[in-house]
Write a sequence for this structure.
């Protein structure tokens, strides 16, 4: 992330190079935020706040303006609980973490990585292949289970996802496994029937011995403004507790999660940075905001 | 979610409606809204700037039309501009003289390459071809398994082996020749555009199999980064066409516009559902209005222009102004409306329509009870619904096959509508000119944002009439 800090200076060289704060300054700031997928409305709100402070002469220098913008943004992300909730309980009552999101965001891969990290913490893990729709999704999860030393429960392709996950929880309960990571099929949030199916998955997951302590929405960093709609719909349907931002190692900035967190109050908890099993880190607001503007 | 551009235009349009021509300031204001709409649709910042610039030039040079008010004309110009960017030549596949015709699939992780490889194979099959799929994505666990399963579903053979991607692709080509398959579709590993090693791998595959067509799969939900991705792939692979995936979501899909604008390659196909046959050739005009969030407002304007008989509309408008709008006029307007096509379609196109209504499942049948009720009334009752008493109500209900409650609702809502119209009439009425304008609104401006067209009932929907 050191390179992003250097690039930040580069991205705003125009802003810094000017003696004062001009119209061009505002245009550049606006475009930088938009380019990072922060979105028009959030960008306007951020810049309006700064404009007021420039007007009252509280801020007069371009460098101070940049600092204020970053500080504002980091401030908006402050105070959120970003920990993954694991509540110790009876041995037959596993924690259940459910993973939801649209197609192709990296749910299965994220489960693989989370599983590996949890195994390293000494927890026993079972992965439930609730994606019974996508061809070979269970195979893919099976490989991650193997790599991370987790158990796998799968059902038939095209089977009922709720019952696969329920079976997984029952199995984990019977064997005293600490944590169930439940995969679900990717679905577009505007498909009513598929969202209803997911609502049932969420309901059934909490019915047996297990306790659903996290429902994580996986968002792809390349996602544009549609991410907000995704978060809203999945949030309404499954009581989302946090966001995992994947593929942040690409050239996309993932600025939409800033909007998701500040507008919907869903904290970003994890960031996926690559394809190997260890490329999953905790979300750091300061680093994230700095990287938003990197070139 | 986002206000659609139509919603946002409502305010401006209301203010501009009376104007004969737009000032530079008006144009700027409308263009600002258009820019916002483009950005909210994920059109790239730079692309949005160029596009808005071009629209400004076109708007300033445009000849004023008599049928549409100036702001509507801008919308028309915007739509034409977007359609022309998105459109252009459609991709026509020329099959290799020495088969197989080789197709390479590229794209970011999760964009839908594997699924779209199978969909494309199915499409080639429907064109009478015999494709072979090659699974060269050895990176993602079980990607080849996924392709094999999809291949079975569409009855297309799949070749892969556990070696390296370049070898798989090369052997796949030999296999296609051996089996006499005339189209070869190579699915590659998803990658992040900046990953030099992975880009290098796809470059090597590209050199080894010399594809006739290279398709870039782009997720319709992609944000600003779509441009960078498309440029990077285009630089490495020389893209021939774009496949827009997940268009069945509710993303506006501005990425399509950005990609087309920066690499200048046709968007050949759009993937519109989870099923393997949900794959179609791309329609630039539909996409333009989707990005703008205008519904199909232009279509609506055109349809309205054709279907509405201006005379009757103007007469109705005049009576309306004078507070003389009757249930007869109302019935007449309903008939006109029906000429414009299925009601559900019209509702979707209507700017300013409440969101709940846009998605509502409304069929023309829903209007039938309203029609039946009015038809069961005497001419006097239609003119003066306030005379409808208990026994008249019973008669009308029996005659129209509805209930007394339905009659009450209709009459009440109609009288509210009448009141509203009187108010509108009072406001707009500045003598003859005002009347003329209302007539135009009815005649040509069905799409005029600002709410329901006069005479359009809101009653059948907020409380469904029992039948």
């Amino acid at each position: 992330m050191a390179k992003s800090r250097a690039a930040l200076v580069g991205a705003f060289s125009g802003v810094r190079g000017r003696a004062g704060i001009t119209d061009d300054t505002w245009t550049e700031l606006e475009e930088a935020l938009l380019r990072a997928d922060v979105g028009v409305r959030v960008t306007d709100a951020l810049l309006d706040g700064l404009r007021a402070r420039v007007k009252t002469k509280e801020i007069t220098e371009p460098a101070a303006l940049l600092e204020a913008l970053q500080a504002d943004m980091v401030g908006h992300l402050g105070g959120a609980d970003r920990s993954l909730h694991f509540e110790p309980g009876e041995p037959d009552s596993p924690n259940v973490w459910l993973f939801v999101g649209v197609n192709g965001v990296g749910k299965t891969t994220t489960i693989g990585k989370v599983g590996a990290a949890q195994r390293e913490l000494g927890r026993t893990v079972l992965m439930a292949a609730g994606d019974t729709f996508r061809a070979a999704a269970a195979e893919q999860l099976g490989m991650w289970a193997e790599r991370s030393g987790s158990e796998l429960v799968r059902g038939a392709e095209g089977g009922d996802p709720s019952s696969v996950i329920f079976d997984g929880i029952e199995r984990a309960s019977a064997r005293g496994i600490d944590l169930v990571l439940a995969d679900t099929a990717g679905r577009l949030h505007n498909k009513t029937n598929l969202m209803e199916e997911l609502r049932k998955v969420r309901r059934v997951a909490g019915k047996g011995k297990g306790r659903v302590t996290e429902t994580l929405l996986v968002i792809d960093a390349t996602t544009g403004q549609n991410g907000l709609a995704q978060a809203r719909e999945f949030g309404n349907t499954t009581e989302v507790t946090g966001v995992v931002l994947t593929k942040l190692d690409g050239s996309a900035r993932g600025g939409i999660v800033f909007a998701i967190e500040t507008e919907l109050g869903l904290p970003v908890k994890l960031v996926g940075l690559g394809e190997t099993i260890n490329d999953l880190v905790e979300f750091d607001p300061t680093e994230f905001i700095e990287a938003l503007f990197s070139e | 979610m986002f206000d659609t551009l139509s919603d946002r235009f409502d305010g401006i349009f209301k203010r501009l409606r009376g104007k004969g021509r737009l000032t530079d300031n008006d144009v700027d204001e409308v263009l600002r809204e258009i820019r916002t709409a483009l950005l909210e649709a994920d059109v790239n910042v730079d692309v949005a700037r160029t596009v808005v610039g071009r629209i400004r030039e076109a708007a300033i040079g445009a000849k004023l039309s008599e049928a549409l008010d100036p702001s509507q004309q801008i919308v028309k110009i915007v739509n034409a501009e977007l359609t022309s960017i998105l459109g252009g030549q459609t991709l026509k596949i020329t099959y290799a003289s020495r088969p197989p015709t080789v197709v390479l699939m590229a794209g970011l992780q999760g964009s839908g390459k594997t699924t779209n490889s199978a969909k494309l194979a199915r499409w080639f099959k429907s064109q009478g071809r015999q494709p072979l799929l090659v699974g060269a994505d050895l990176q993602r666990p079980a990607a080849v398994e996924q392709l094999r399963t999809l291949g079975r579903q569409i009855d297309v053979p799949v070749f892969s082996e556990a070696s390296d991607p370049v070898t798989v692709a090369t052997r796949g080509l030999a296999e296609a020749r051996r089996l006499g398959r005339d189209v070869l579709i190579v699915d590659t590993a998803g990658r992040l555009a900046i990953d030099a090693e992975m880009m290098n791998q796809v470059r090597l595959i590209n050199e080894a199999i010399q594809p006739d067509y290279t398709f870039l799969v782009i997720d319709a939900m992609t944000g600003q980064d779509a441009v960078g991705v498309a440029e990077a792939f285009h630089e490495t692979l020389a893209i021939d066409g774009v496949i827009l995936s997940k268009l069945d979501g509710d993303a506006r899909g501005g990425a399509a516009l950005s990609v087309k604008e920066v690499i200048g390659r046709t968007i050949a196909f759009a993937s519109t559902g989870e099923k393997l046959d949900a794959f179609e050739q791309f329609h630039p005009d539909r996409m333009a209005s989707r990005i703008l969030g205008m519904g199909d407002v232009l279509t609506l304007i055109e349809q309205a222009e054709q279907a509405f008989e201006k005379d009757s509309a103007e007469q109705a408008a005049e009576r309306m102004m004078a507070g003389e709008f009757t249930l007869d006029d109302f019935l007449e307007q309903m008939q006109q409306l029906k000429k414009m096509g299925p009601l559900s379609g019209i509702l979707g196109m209507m700017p300013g329509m409440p969101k709940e209504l846009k998605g509502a499942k409304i069929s023309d049948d829903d209007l039938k009870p309203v029609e039946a009720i009015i038809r069961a009334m005497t001419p006097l009752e239609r003119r003066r619904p306030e005379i409808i008493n208990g026994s008249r109500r019973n008669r009308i209900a029996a005659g129209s096959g509805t209930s007394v409650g339905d009659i009450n609702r209709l009459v009440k809502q109609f009288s509210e509508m009448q009141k509203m119209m009187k108010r509108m009439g009072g406001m707009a009425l500045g003598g003859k000119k005002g009347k003329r304008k209302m007539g135009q609104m009815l005649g040509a401006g069905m799409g005029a944002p600002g709410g329901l067209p006069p005479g359009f009932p809101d009653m059948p929907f907020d409380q469904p009439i029992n039948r």
Observations:
- Chain A touches chain B through 46 residues (CB under 8 Å).
- Residues 1-9 of chain A have pLDDT under 50 and may be disordered.
- The two ends of chain A are 12 Å apart (CA to CA).
- Residues 131 and 185 of chain A are 4 Å apart (CA to CA).
